[in-house]
Amino acid sequence: MADDVRELLLSITADADPSTPLSAPDLHLLIDRLRLRSDRLHASALSFASSNREPLASALLRAAGSAASPASLEAALESALSPLSSSLDLSDLRSLSDRLLAARRKLRERQEHLAAASSVASLSARLRAARASANPLDAAIAAAELKPLLVDPQGSGSEGDEPVVFGLLRGEWEQLVDELQVGLAKNVEECVEFAPEGGKVVVSAGPRGSSSGTRGVELRVALQALEIIDSLDYGMAKVADLMIKQILIPAISNISVTVSVSVLEKSGSTSSVSVLIIAPSEELQGYKDGSELYSRIIEVIKFVRKFICMENITWMQSFAKLTWSRISDLLITHFLSKAVPNEASKLIEFQDVVRSTSEFENTLRSMMFISPDRKDGKLTHFVNDVEIHFAVRKRNEILVKARDILVQYDYENPLASDDQGDSVVDLLFQPEKCFISKSALQLMKLVHGALKDACLSSTRVAKEFCYAARDALLLYKAIVPVQLEKQLNSVSQVAAIIHNDFYHLSQEILGLAFEYRADFPSGLQKLVVFVDLAPIFSQMADGVLRRQIQLTTANLSEAIDGADGFQNTHQSQHYESARFSIEQVVFILEKIHIMWELILPRSIYRRSMFHVLGPVFSRITKNMLLIDDMAAEETLQLQGLTHLALENLSSLFLSLVENDDDDDKFLDHHTWVQLDESVPSLKKFRKLAELLDMSLKSITAAWESGELVNCGFTSSEVRNFIKAIFADSPLRKECLGWIAMNPA
Questions:
Q1: pLDDT in tens, 360-387
Q2: Interatomic CA distance for residues 536 and 216, integer angstroms
Q3: Is the pTM of this model over 0.70?
Q4: Is-contact 139 133, C-beta < 8 A?
Q5: Who contacts 36 (Cβ-Cβ below 8 Å, separation ≥6)?
Q6: Cα(498)–Cα(481) distance, integer angstroms
Q7: In angstroms, rounded to a whole number, what is the distance separating the alpha carbons of residues 291 and 284?
Q8: Half-sphere exposure (CA, 13 Å, Cβ side) for 332?
């Protein structure tokens, strides 16, 4: 509008400045032109409204005609159109359109509510009719028809937005279905009766009497109704369970039984009674290839198909779904697993069982008892894997034997048996012998037997044999240390034997790959290894021996502590304590000498004794050298104690010397040289015994010659020893000074 006025102003004052005020004539001219422009616009709007009034009114009337109340809608339309006749403002058309849309939406909602109420009333009436029906088949049909209308009718899977009344109706429908399920299942149980003592089932076409007091329906009708409401499995569950427990278990688990079927009455379809009986047989049939057993089961399934399922495939498949898994498990437990051969040479004979089992499952497929796609062929899968089952059985047998060997062996008296010679074995990688327990000996025989069988078997079977051999070896590691924990935590002969067992097994394990790998099936030659077990057993052997050495060293240290540093031995009480201490040391050393020499490999025996003897003589020598004052009598006492120890340990010393002539051993110079090289502290101990009886000049000369240094003495030890034995004098002072000036 502002643009139109500006245009008129420019047309009036084309040559004037737009900012110049208008004169009175110009204003009159502008008013006239504005009035003329308004009249033209009014005429144009009236012409447009008049030319489009009839089509618009016709469209609105057609929309209003679809409503339930034409008269009221026409009045509303006239009321809505009245502003057009009185006013030609086009903005009223939008308000009129909004009012029409609101009216149509309200009408649609009322129609939906009316339809929902009608549907609820119809569903409620159908539910009442189904519940009141005397025929369960009609009730089942009605329930099945109502299911898609009540159970998630929109298919959305959500019930949160539905009216409450639908939830109530669904609850009534579920109650109806539950009542039908329970009643029909009870009806089926009354038609199929099992004898309390088992082995007999009686099937009637109709129930003989209802325990609830209501008249039942025929078996066929009950199963039809259960099928309609998708509750066939529920209705047949108890019958299937009792058929397994009272008919099929006796038929499968007992060798000598017969299956007989008879029809007692056949005057009418409602009164026919069929009986199946599992009766003992005097004839010992045996399973052999399983054909007799399978024929019994087929007779039972035929009876179920004919008299319970009445040749209905759907009902038969429901019964099969409830029973086949348990039937196949029973057959595997009571027949197939027992039929697996104990020897590899008899695997060929098992093919008869494979054939009869395949025929049995094919018969069941033809009866539609199991699926034709062979996914239910559990028995066939089992017999086809007979090699695996054979190998697993052998593996279990090997492990059971290994466990029995390890648990039942008497480790307390390993040397008491008469056949000790068998327990002395050659070490595989050392030119030595050692004593091992009968359990380790028998265990290795078991392992060698398993690996020999693996060399003669197929790849799958050989793999199980190899795993059995590994597991048998690991059983020793798992059982024996725990079983003999008490003996291993004390110095004992048993611990030494266990060390030998681990040591021997570690060497045998290293040799297994060289002995058998070339003869293994080609698929296993690079897969099966034993060498990884050898370090484990070697470490176990080292651990056992290390523990024995630690315990022995602790006992010896405790015995030496009883000597109280070997001081004041010139006094009777202290001398007796020192003597007892030496005797205890000798006793402990002789004890392990007797135990270890007979059992341990010689190299390990010598090395272990050297580990024990070194700290013992070092400790005794150190204690004696720490005495700060010795009387003449005291030196004689100490010398006597050292000689006592050396003399009583002579047999031990001789056992540690390498001598080709075992019958002519004695402690000569050559023997002592060998011992001194192996146990340096023994050389020092022996020299100390000599020093206790040597003069000051002799001691000084021995130091000057380097003899004492070679025996392990230090300058301070020699000087302290001289101070303790010899009284202060110019000669002692001179000798001490010379030794101090000439250290080693």
A1: 989 988 888 888 877 777 888 888 888 8
A2: 74
A3: no
A4: yes
A5: none
A6: 8
A7: 14
A8: 17
